[in-house]
Amino acid sequence: MAAGSQPGHTSSASRPEDDAGAAERPSSFAPWRDALAVVVGTRILFFLIGYAASFLLSSGTSGIPDVGPFDIWNRWDATRFLTTADNGYEGPGSFPNAYAFFPFFPMAIRMLGWLGLPSLAAGFLISAIGSWVGLAFLWKLAEEEVGEGTGRRAVLYAAVFPTAVFLIAPYSESLFLAGAIPAFYFARRRRWELVGPFAALAMGTRFAGVFLLLGLFVEALRQRDLSPKQLFQAGLSLVIGMLPLLGYAAYLAQVKNDPFYFVTEQRLGWGRSFVGPISALTNTIDRFDDPTQSTNFQFAYRIEIVAAAVGVLFVLWAIKKREWGYAVYMGTVLLVLLTSTEYFSIPRILLTFFPVAVFMARATLERPLLHDVYLALSTTAAAVGVVVYTRGSWFF
Amino acid sequence: MSSLQAEAAAAPSRSLIARLDGASRAWVEAGVMAFVARLAFFAIGMATSWFLLSGSSGAPETGFQGMWRSWDAHHFLTIAEHGYTAPQSDAHAAAFFPGFPLAVRPLLWIGLSPVVAGLLISAVAAVVAGYFLHRLAEDELGEGAGRRALLYLTIFPTAVFLVAPYSESLFLAGAIAAFYFARRGRWHLVGLPAAVAMGSRAAGLFLLLGLAVEFLRQRDFSKERLANAGLALVLGLLPLLAYAAFLGQAMGDPFEYVNHQREGWGRTFVGPVSSFMSTWSTWDSASTTQTNFLLAWRIEIVAAAAGIGATLWAAWKREWGYAAFMGSMMAVLLTSTWYYSIPRMLLTMFPITLFLAEASGRRPALHEWLVVALAPLAALGVVVFTQHNWFF
Most C-beta atoms within 10 A of its C-beta, which of A22, A262, A324, B91? Predict the structure, then answer.
């Protein structure tokens, strides 16, 4: 099918198989148009919800809320990313333990800053563009593999996932997906020559890029009949994908004398190290009634358990579909999360399990009631996430 | 090519629900929606009460029942428990029509708590309302319209009041059923549901007006239909007369309902310009007005515009019965001292959901956008209401 897009094939009449390929593939414009509509639409909606909540939930104060409509999105890790973009990893004004955050997202903010854009605006813009690219490829992935009409569904499901607030906020999830989804898309289309740069984008943005590379590796193994050229391209892509990790490690080796300093920072900043799965679970359950934790966190730990169970189901779903590349990608991410000192931010990480949106689009194809109910419930949960996050309460 | 594709080809062509007949499908879908909406709204209320509590540790003080006994729910349930004139009840309790508290009361006798009883009445009423809305949409707008109209009602921005112990569900159960039978020309069945609506909310009067106009629109004035419709309207008026008689006896004035609206909420009839200006100028005192109310007043104005829009939409479709129902309600809301609770009143203007279901019939993208836009607003309403902040 890739041959059809090569230049030089002007006489399509003599190549019927190319025609079939063209008919199967919808307008190349549609995924970008639909994804853009969803990216813009959900932003308008969730910015409104967040700011409306900041009025409607303030009965003890009078007048317009102190924090503006966009500043209410500068919370938790958003502040860390923006501060890192402004002041670097270390030095005056920088956040402690900032090395735990991979560099591409703050770097991209800083580059937009050179154009005069304030960090917060730059963060929003990168999240928006990252979502757009990621969702457009998700559209193609679903539409081309599952069938007509599933592209828009998959995009919607991803954009209103219960923790979708982090696709809008200045967090690194959007930029990561802008690398991860196209990487898998091209891998599955066997266009391995295009996988490398996207995999590298994901790898430089979040540590989870390592698990993406693992998933892509398994995807290559699954495609048993690759030509030597494709095999070479696949190998090269994985090497290119590794480069940002090597680059960051080299940088950390130089400035901190420890190439794995981002792991050290996880332990220093969040008390996270590797433990057995049982003690990770019991540590999390112990937090339910831990009097040193606020009600907010006590509840969040309960949701962590639910999210962990959902994550396991997602992986099992991929295995049942014999989607080994997806299963390894999601399974390894989950494995690390479930063997960390305690469960933390799992609901947010599930947002990066993009294959689930495709699976869901498939599941609701002939079930309009399920589509409606799932869409409504997921959007509802996403709205709660927006309210909790923009209020400054902990939301993963 | 992929396993996903192979699976798509092997999928069953119709779901289980699609194989049911119209009435059964309407009951099943209305039941499913009402049930899922309750699960979701209860979960949202509970989750946010924990999530938004950062200053302390342990379970929030306000439990499930306290969370849902907010604002008018408290008034309704106190009336159900103690009656209109008891000292526990609001001094202006007569502003609340008796249908909902009367329905709750027998459930208290069998030992249910007021909140649970109120939630139960709202749930049953929501299923009945959903059933008739489904039938109405499916019959008039084609297959699939029933599910869409029902969904739009379930996730309407103020849908929290279909779940809470408020009178909106009971009113809609009567109002939609009355219009359903009226539009089928079965006027002998209109009276009872119309009476349920009239007994639940003063807006029943606008419903009766709408039904009368619907009768005229059908232009079939045979003797039998005339008698049936006339009887239905008289039957529909009975709860109003009974309530007036009760108020006359218990409080000395059959129109105590209007008095209490004025005394309790400062509402009298004024010109539409004065009403708009009073609402608009709330922003002038922005620095002293409660933050919560500051935006609520602004949303009242948006809701008023939406209500006018819905009425014009009905008129444009030449749906005179619906137009009269919604138009007369809007006329009263827009000539009250200030705009108040209009977003909640829009929830009772059920023709809006039918119009939307018709519009989205051939546009799946519009349908999805409606779901994606409405559901978060409904969720916000649940959060604001269960946190005991003012939400219409």
Answer: A262
